[in-house]
Write a structure and sequence with these properties.
Elements lengths: L2 H19 L4 H21 L2 H21 L6
Length: 75
């Protein structure tokens, strides 16, 4: 497995983990946004630019959700 493939697998795995934990605290929403950015970078580096664009958009959506949730949660 190439280093790029390992990076991609780690990024997508982090997305899955943080998405599953989002209800626990706003931090996990922010972590999901960061994992989406990593996944987007992987997509662009791998040459799958549509994947990179979609993941970049997901990162923005998650960042907006984090901004909305951080003031309404005690976690």
């Amino acid at each position: 497995m190439t280093p790029l493939a390992l990076f991609g697998a780690a990024a997508v795995s982090a997305m899955l983990l943080f998405y599953a934990l989002e209800a626990r605290a706003p931090f996990f929403v922010l972590a999901f946004a960061a994992a989406c950015l990593a996944s987007s970078a992987y997509g662009f580096m791998q040459g799958a630019w549509p994947f990179g664009v979609v993941e970049l958009i997901w990162s923005g959506v998650a960042l907006r959700r984090w901004l909305e949730r951080r003031g309404t949660s005690t976690g």
